[in-house]
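Dear colleague,

Thank you for sharing your sequence with our group. We've completed the structure prediction you requested, and as agreed, I am returning the results in plain text so they can be pasted directly into your records. Please verify that the sequence below matches your submission; if there's any discrepancy, let me know and we will rerun it promptly.
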Amino acid sequence: MLKVENVTKYYGNFKAVDNLSFEVKDGEIFGLLGVNGAGKTTTFRMIMRLIDDYEGTITLDNKPIDYTVTNKIGFLTEERSLLTKLTVKEQILFYGHLKDMKEEEILKKLDYWLDRFEVKEYKDKKIKELSKGNQQKIQFISAIINDPKLLILDEPFSGLDPINIEEFKEVILEFKKKGSTIIFSSHRMDHVEMFCEKLVILLRGKPVIEGYISDIKKQYRKKNIIVIGDIDIKDAKKIDGVVNIEKNANEYIIKIEDESKIQNVFKYISKCKNVTKFVVEEPSLNEIFIAKVGEAYEK
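Please find the predicted structure tokens below.
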């Protein structure tokens, strides 16, 4: 289990992280999110012990994170951190040796992952000769080559097409099943919802949203009603409790203040023609993120 307790980090007079606390259990995928400059990268660096002058405590399995623990950590950074003049083999050997792995073990695991991601023909090619997507595969391999106990993934799907995203997803879920502690960060809220049960969203180093995603959605009063049918948007907007209506392909998304307004909308829709769909949905995490972060900015 990873525990971050009452952590605060200053850069001079600037407070980058402000009394942050969260924990991630074994076999759990935790979302650490925020706008640019919110404090995510600083938090990652403190967890990795790349920054150690902070207030508070960070532990992995109840032990302070130091160089006796970092071999158990894998980190995929948002910025491409590959040495482009090295070959794929040289790159992964370099990272494996940093984790005190034996060369025979590194090469065995490298062959497995290259085959798994269908890029084994690139083993002796230089990183700079690879496409952006294939470079991301190599960067991912570098993060998992040591079978990490703690895996930190910052924008892991950058440069990937939908098929390769599914491949990465399968591997991440395998590490979860094995009991790895995983921190996942992305600006794509749909990716976050795909993996994470719990999350923290930071703004100016402080949480503006935290907890289980299911609870966060329940606490957010606004709901969406998805309708397919012949409705008049001008008339529907006059219904008590309707906040806004959006047209999405052949569907209407009717946004309402809270659950108590569902019946108002249903009464109107029941009188419309060709209605084939009326579904009440929780708002997306993206909607909640925009609303809550926007509110916090205005304070």
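Summary note from our side: The chain has two domains: 2-217, 221-281.

Kind regards,
the structure core
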